[in-house]
Write a structure and sequence with these properties.
17 strands; 6-stranded mixed beta sheet; single chain; alpha/beta; Rossmann fold; Four Helix Bundle (Hemerythrin (Met), subunit A); 15 helices
């Protein structure tokens, strides 16, 4: 069975065929660095990471670009509130994002281009769009994309074009607008006093770029533009959350294809929202959790990663702290099971399990079934320990739970002393004392199991 992925543009499962035989170009919309990302944002990044890992697992060389939005209305607003320069303010939250990325075991992108480093490329694209009649200069000097010049506008979001033409009469200078508000969007924003000292002097005048144009500039420069000049490649896959579909990705398509005259992206892939009490998690609603909030509640970042794997990426998922805690406990048990296996990587990957794993993952990254298969493998007594170990490691190349980096767990000295006392009590057939000591061990967060090879201690 070949890899099939759901393409938002066609609303269909499609066989994945990259534009180049052995390599894949992948673009992911990254964070706007004005605050700590919430865990709903990280659903998009973990989904993108799982896709990337599986493509690599299948033997593709993946060229992955993720942008960093370090210039927009929110970064300017909040840097001013903090009394910091834009660069100082955004550098802090960029570094915090990288820390979170590493805690979630997300493989770093090949490049993280910053919007402020691509002003020249954006200006070049905007000037070409004006020249081709797709953009116009307003009375205040701002530049807007005229969506009526792009007949395909609305196809990604599957919005009726006739309604778009009726509504697309206003101009929207804000970086974001409501899903029902369809208007010409800003490519370049003329300087406004509220921008303070954040501006660039360019051939377009004094000002700064709009939000949408940055992704076109970065993706074309890093993934699409050939060294010969005006020859452009289509990108294989572009990912993001469903909230990016409209207007952001719709606008990316319009400006990119109007500029290059070629298809912008072959496969559009979007993950669903993470809900809290049935509502979208967002900073504007104040119903969000950061990774730090989860850690404070005793939930590990990789426990959160495992929890996300229990739902398909295209499924609306409701956040529940109790189920998150359960997932974290499950991860601890997975680690325990792995540590109990022979510490020898010379086993053989079990091909029956591997083929089933590939079958599930080829079905639009069906992680719930693939994860259930992992647990089936863990409990299967017919698989030799060494083979089980290397098969788990093979699967974890996609799951990203960090099995290969697990270190031996250090049991506290207090617990080990109780285990020794209990072992001595058992040798003397003092079963009552043995039970008392077992209970004490449990209160310290550990459990002891009696096996033919002696007592085995593990976290509860």
């Amino acid at each position: 069975m070949s890899l099939k992925l759901h393409n938002t543009y066609t609303k269909k499962l499609e066989e994945f065929i990259p534009l180049k035989k052995d390599s894949v170009s992948l673009y992911t919309c990254g964070p706007t660095v004005y605050d700590y990302p919430h865990i709903g944002n990280y659903r998009a990044y973990i989904f993108g990471d799982t896709l990337k890992r599986y493509l690599s697992y299948q033997g593709y060389q993946v060229n992955h670009i993720m942008n960093i939005t370090d210039i927009d209305d929110k970064t300017i607003r909040d840097s001013q509130k903090n009394g910091q320069s834009l660069r100082e303010f955004t550098e802090f939250y960029t570094n915090e994002f990288y820390k979170d990325r590493d805690m979630l075991n997300i493989i770093p992108a090949d490049s993280y281009p910053m919007a402020t480093e691509y002003i020249d490329e954006m200006v070049k694209i905007i000037e070409k769009l004006i020249e081709k009649g797709h953009a116009y200069v307003s009375t205040d000097g701002s530049v807007y994309f005229n969506i009526s010049t792009f007949p395909g506008y609305g196809k990604l979001a599957h919005i009726d074009l006739s309604e778009l033409r009726d509504n697309a009469k206003g101009r929207m200078k804000s970086d974001e607008y409501d899903k029902d508000s369809v208007q010409d969007f800003a490519l370049w924003k003329a300087y406004d006093e509220s921008d303070g000292n954040v501006f660039w002097e360019t051939s377009l005048g004094k000002g700064r770029p709009g939000w949408h144009i940055e992704c076109t500039a970065m993706s074309i420069k890093n993934l699409g533009e050939q060294t010969s000049g005006e020859d452009y490649r289509t990108i294989d896959i572009h990912t993001g959350g469903v909230d990016n579909i409209f207007p952001h990705h719709e606008n990316e398509i319009a400006q990119s294809e109007s500029y290059t005259g070629k298809q912008f992206v072959k496969y559009w892939m979007h993950n669903e929202w993470l809900l809290v009490n049935g509502k979208k998690m967002s900073k504007s609603l104040g119903n969000f959790y950061t990774l730090r909030d989860l850690i404070t509640k005793g939930i590990s970042p990789l426990g959160y990663r495992l929890w996300l794997m229990t739902s398909h990426y295209r499924t609306l998922t409701n956040l529940n702290i109790e189920t998150l805690q359960g997932a974290d406990t499950a991860l601890s048990r997975l680690y325990e099971a792995f540590r109990a296996l022979p510490k020898d990587d010379n086993g053989t990957v079990d091909m029956d399990y591997k083929l089933r794993f590939i079958e599930y993952m080829n079905d639009d990254l069906n992680t719930p079934q693939a994860l259930a298969l992992l647990w089936e493998l863990v409990k299967d007594p017919s698989i030799p320990g060494m083979d089980k170990r290397v098969t788990m490691l093979d699967f974890d190349r996609v799951f990203g739970f960090g099995l290969a980096d697990l270190k031996e767990e250090i049991v506290p000295e207090e617990v080990m002393k109780l285990v020794e006392e209990r072992e001595f009590a058992r040798l003397n057939k003092d079963w009552d004392l043995s039970d008392v000591l077992r209970a004490k061990i449990n209160t310290l967060g550990y459990e002891v199991k009696d096996t033919g090879e002696g007592s085995k201690i593990s976290k509860i």
